[in-house]
């Protein structure tokens, strides 16, 4: 049964993603109509710079007054692709107050204010969908909150930032240093002029917070996510990783504690074995491993960013939200009933790869080994290399709480035979 | 808002999958209640052998009369994990006639009668969900029909049968022949006593038909799927594949024709480059590549079979169908509006790897090359090996319609310098 009155869509933002959304809504209008059961009409496009020429978009639809567009009374669904906290937050709230369901690609906002926005949507009986906020085109939010709704997710580990994966992949394949690889990523458009949000892990941490909430049916705020960027990763670290049969990736890792009573969420660079499927994720691709009790290990892989891939995710949500509108129903909202607390990084159980510059004299290894033992950290392997009176010691630990591992490192720094800690990197995926 | 009256579930079949479904429904009852918004109660279990002890299942719930269970008037949702065509088909139809939504894991039935079952569900305003019918726990049906609902899928290529992947992986890694690898798969429980459905590609063809329908929004019947099994794949084929930097996988490949006016669906063994992500799918795992216009290349990976993984998919569907019941709505039904015809195998554009036993005398290569040219097939590489008056010629073609390629092979067989066609294998994934 096909309805002929169209559902009206307000597009908030018309940059790289928004213009692709508008283009596909126009070129694939017949398909969208069939799949939804009613036509969807682009009824208004709110932008900051109205003078910019936007190919394929009727200039009559363009406005600088997003609030007025939402308040005019005929909009069914708003697509928010502005990004950032404000004005996006206020606009989404305004939309809900006017009976408008929302599709958003805004990871920063969802990570910071997801709970309040979900509550507002639920209060008004409306949808808030955001598949595009995490890992671009890769279906991840819907599979995790719908396909795995009858399962218990215990662990999520993934590469959720394309820019940093591009940089790390270049460093791995060419031996380049961080700055050189970043320069190439910037020249090719993979990194922004100010790459801070990517390289310091803020972008990945926002996605980690969103995914952790969905995975564990609890609330995980951005501040709950431990975060380390990858600007300190060096060519020497990659050389060390290679000696171990590993590469280095910036990982988002979300885990349920062994006792099931708490969860952890973290973003940091880590060595992973070359045999791990995440090791072979190249260039700016994203991939996420999900381990669930019944399903086992699943992996989702694809382009994590870009106008068209992100638009694909937005439009998938648009179809779902439009179908819900027609059925006068809503999709799954926030599920935070477990109320599991988020433990600090010190409680995370992991392994360290530590490179020490040490004095080349007898007894150093014994002193170092004693320090590990005093902190309850068991050593997996040690490799000693000496030349010209200098020596280096590479220690890989067994699994231990991060607090014990970092405490060990602090104690090692104080040993007079240890001249410096050359690098510390966690080891994951084994 | 939590409803306290439970939704009542009839479980039809209690084998490997059904018993896992029942177990999880019991052990994770609180989680399911929270995620659905109402409790779900296992209200009856229909089995063939009531005397069999089923741990964790109240014997009072067990019946041999599935029809009576569906007709008794209090069932909201039926889970069909019997498999095969009958009695599953009649029971699902009975369920719809009594206002019962259905979750099914039955690939054979969906591939054969999906259209009629979808029509029956729609007629009664009910749901028919079947994530578990394709690739076990891997979310694939929902991502394709919901996450990618705003995109245009052009190609799906995947490993959708775990048994054959296990056998081919063994042949590849150990150099074993087909029979030896099959025997190992049987001993380890990866292959059934009668492996025909797996090794002849019937199981993969059923999944291919289901996926093709979803991918292209058209109807693809089981008979529309070209099917070749993998019982003829030899150790020599793997040796040839290795020389080309390839391995051999049994692939399901669904493609939209270049002009967009038709589709093709096929299952056959093929060489794929080791660099292709599907090449590294080991043991009984499944993985499916989806190429969409806006999203680009996505991959979904995970366990393709087994009691618990399949139960995970069933329970994800159960949560969705239960939520729909509470909202008095239904999820997306069949989408077949494009009505794209399915072209025969001869129209598929592919590449052949052909090994010929030829006479070791001058002019043979010229004669063979002429035959290819006469059929409009362009040669990519030729490798000649001669010893003791015998010679072999390995030809890899460029892309050409399968009809032209198979026509070439027929003509080659008739050349008096060609003593035999040792093997033919398609080459994909480049």
From TrEMBL, chains A, B:
Pathway: Amino-acid biosynthesis; L-threonine biosynthesis; L-threonine from L-aspartate: step 3/5; Amino-acid biosynthesis; L-methionine biosynthesis via de novo pathway; L-homoserine from L-aspartate: step 3/3. Its cofactor is a metal cation. The keyword RNA-binding does not apply. Pfam families: ACT (PF01842), Homoserine_dh (PF00742), NAD_binding_3 (PF03447). It catalyses: L-homoserine + NAD(+) = L-aspartate 4-semialdehyde + NADH + H(+); L-homoserine + NADP(+) = L-aspartate 4-semialdehyde + NADPH + H(+). It comes from the Bacteria. Keywords: Amino-acid biosynthesis, Methionine biosynthesis, NADP, Oxidoreductase, Sodium, Threonine biosynthesis. Signal peptide: none annotated. InterPro entries: ACT-like_dom_sf, ACT_dom, Asp/hSer_DH_NAD-bd, HDH, HDH_cat, HDH_CS, NAD(P)-bd_dom_sf. Residues 353-426 form the ACT domain. It is an enzyme of class 1 (oxidoreductase). Coiled coil: none annotated. Its EC number is 1.1.1.3. PROSITE patterns: ACT, HOMOSER_DHGENASE. Belongs to the homoserine dehydrogenase family. Catalyzes the conversion of L-aspartate-beta-semialdehyde (L-Asa) to L-homoserine (L-Hse), the third step in the biosynthesis of threonine and methionine from aspartate. NCBIfam families: PRK06349.1. This is Homoserine dehydrogenase.
């Amino acid at each position: 049964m096909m309805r002929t009155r169209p559902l009206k869509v307000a597009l908030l933002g018309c940059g790289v993603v928004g213009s692709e959304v508008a283009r596909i809504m126009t070129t694939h209008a017949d398909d969208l109509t069939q799949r939804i059961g009613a036509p969807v009409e682009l009824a208004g496009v709110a932008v900051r710079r109205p003078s910019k020429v936007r190919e394929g978009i009727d200039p009559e639809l363009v406005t600088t007054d997003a609030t007025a567009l939402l308040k005019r009374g005929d909009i069914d669904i708003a697509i928010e692709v502005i990004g950032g906290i404000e004005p996006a937050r206020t606009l989404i709230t305004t939309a809900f107050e006017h009976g408008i369901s929302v599709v958003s690609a805004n990871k920063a906002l969802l990570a910071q204010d997801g709970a309040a926005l979900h509550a507002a949507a639920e209060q008004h009986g409306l949808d808030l969908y955001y598949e595009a906020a995490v890992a671009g085109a890769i279906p991840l939010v819907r599979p995790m909150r719908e396909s795995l709704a009858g399962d218990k997710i215990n662990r999520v580990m993934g590469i959720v930032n394309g820019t940093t994966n591009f940089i790390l992949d270049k460093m791995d394949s060419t031996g380049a240093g961080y700055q050189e690889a970043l320069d190439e990523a910037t020249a090719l458009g993979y990194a922004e002029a100010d790459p801070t949000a990517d390289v310091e892990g803020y972008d990945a941490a926002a996605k980690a917070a969103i995914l952790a909430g969905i995975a564990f049916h609890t609330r995980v705020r951005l501040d709950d996510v431990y975060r380390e960027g990858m600007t300190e990763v060096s060519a020497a670290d990659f050389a060390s990783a290679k000696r171990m049969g590993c590469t280095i990736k910036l990982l988002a890792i979300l885990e349920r504690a062994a006792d099931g009573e708490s969860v952890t969420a973290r973003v940091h660079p880590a060595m992973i074995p070359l045999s791990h499927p995440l090791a072979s994720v190249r260039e700016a691709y994203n991939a996420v491993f999900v381990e669930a009790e019944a399903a086992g290990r699943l992996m989702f892989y694809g382009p994590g960013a870009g106008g068209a891939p992100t638009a694909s995710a937005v439009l998938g949500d648009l179809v779902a939200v439009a179908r819900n509108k027609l059925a006068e129903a809503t999709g799954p909202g926030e599920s935070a009933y477990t109320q599991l607390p988020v433990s600090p990084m010190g409680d995370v159980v992991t392994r360290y790869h530590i490179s020490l510059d040490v004095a080349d004299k007898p007894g150093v290894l014994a002193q170092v080994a004693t320090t590990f033992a005093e902190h309850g950290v068991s050593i997996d392997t040690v490799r000693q290399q000496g030349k010209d009176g200098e020596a280096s010691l590479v220690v890989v630990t067994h699994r231990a709480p991060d607090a014990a591992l970092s405490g060990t490192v602090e104690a090692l720094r104080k040993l007079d035979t240890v001249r410096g800690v050359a690098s510390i990197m966690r080891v994951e995926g084994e």
